[in-house]
Amino acid sequence: MTLILFIPAFILTLACAFADVRTPGEALDISSVRSVVISGDASDIRLTTTNTEPYRANTSARRSGWFSSWYSSWFFNGCRDRSAMRIDRTVLKIEVMQTSWTDLSDCAPEVSANLLPGAIVRIDQQAVRARLDGDFASVAISSKAADITFDGHATGIDILGAAVRARLRYDTIRQDETVSINAQSLQADLDFGSGVPVDYSVIAKASYVDSLEASVQGARPRVSIKGDFVHARIR
């Protein structure tokens, strides 16, 4: 009798423990999420804050490369999603895992999520291509190689990397914006809109800064750029 009562209780405990863990390919409801943390290997990331669409997150894997067009015809091994995704209280945690090294063609992990406006984003990966569209509280990205496109608003953007290409466009200015970029090699295009005073500083071994206006001390947005080799355009 004790064993019969124990089995249902054990199954219920397992169900509760894995309630916020999804199986590969399944979208996860993130309507309670206020921040997202993405770590692990390289990936292609797409984040939005669209209130007309469900708040969902998903990971997938897409085959690319020279062998990709023939791979499915010659080999049974598929391009599998190996990433793990779970919710811890109000934090969405995603760990990106690369596919097997035996794959003949690159299998690129992908992450997509539609977050609540005002979400906090932190990305810490070896390499990343990220596109963020919407209204975020803050964005922090650390990567050896990063290609970043941002369109919307964030109170703070902090980028750290070795080789970085960043295209940041603000659609609104609330005079609370700070942008900090620290990279050995940087190509940056920052657009805050016409006639917006910007307090910016660039410290580098070699730099080329293209700006139509002089820096206005004490203004917001405030931009701080540090690196070895910097090409920055500020508008």
Question: What would you note in describing this structure?
Answer:
By secondary structure, the chain is mainly beta. It has helices at 2-17, 68-74, and strands at 28-29, 35-40, 43-48, 56-63, 84-88, 91-96, 107-114, 119-170, 178-191, 199-211, 222-234. It is globular and about 50 Å long. 29% of the residues are buried.
How helix-rich are the residues, as a percent range?
A: under 10%
**Termini separation:** 74 Å
Radius of gyration computed on alpha carbons: 21 Å
Q: How would the global form be characterised?
A: globular
Number of H/I helices: 2
Major sheet details: 11 strands, mixed
Strand and helix layout:
Layout: H1 2-17, E1 28-29, E2 35-40, E3 43-48, E4 56-63, H2 68-74, E5 84-88, E6 91-96, E7 107-114, E8 119-170, E9 178-191, E10 199-211, E11 222-234
Parallel strand pairs: 2-6, 2-8, 3-7, 3-8, 8-9, 9-11, 10-11
Antiparallel strand pairs: 1-4, 4-7, 5-6
List keywords for this structure.
2 helices, 10% helix, 235 residues, mainly beta, eleven-stranded mixed sheet
Brief digest:
The chain has 235 residues and is mainly beta.
